[in-house]
Amino acid sequence: MSTNQFRALAHASLIVAALGIGACTRSASSASTPTGGAVASASPLTGQQATMEAVRSALLTQTAQAVQGGAGNTSTPTSGAGIVTATPVVGTPATVVVTPAGPTKTPFPIPPLVVPSSYTLHEGEFPYCLGRRFNRNPDDILAVNGLTNSSITVPGQTLTIPSTGTFPGPRALLSHPTTYNVAGGDTIYSVACYYGDVDPMAIAAVNGLSSPYTLTAGSTIQIP
Description:
Elements: H1 3-30, H2 47-71, E1 73-77, E2 84-88, E3 118-120, H3 127-134, H4 138-144, E4 158-160, E5 178-181, H5 188-195, H6 200-206, E6 220-223
Antiparallel strand pairs: 1-2, 3-4, 5-6
Helix pairs in contact: 3-4, 5-6
């Protein structure tokens, strides 16, 4: 073997040894556990793989920065791994304010109950009904009108209402305020008598009814 051949062989051996040492160094560096939750490579990276990994890391970083500029996100690269985790900035969600409905307003003011000196009966009304409504003794109503318990009264009949006296016992037949489902033949006057101490004009007021105060069967009305 000539001197030149020996020198060439020695140089080749040195180059091979250097490449081997570099590969081992890169393998040990690539095998280190990345921080920040990145997944470590399962096998050592060759020199070509390490170069490709560096290029991929740079591309991921540029992509994350572009997302940050266009979508309002904050990008935080992990330490030493070249993997970028994009953390969206969560804004304050829109708040839907639901205003609870207030108390039902009456279309018209409820008129105060006025005890008249005389009253004309409507369909569904009778002396005992008037006694509860006006807080008068029904016997006094019958007496001043020349009537008895067996007397029959009819709609359109006018009765005198005493100026004194009180109803003997609770005036209300049913509790209220409430709602009432209208049946066929009901009138504001008969419904008022059904509850006892309710003024039919108050029923008309809270339900926005005007004369002749017609009720529709199957509807629901408010009872004050």
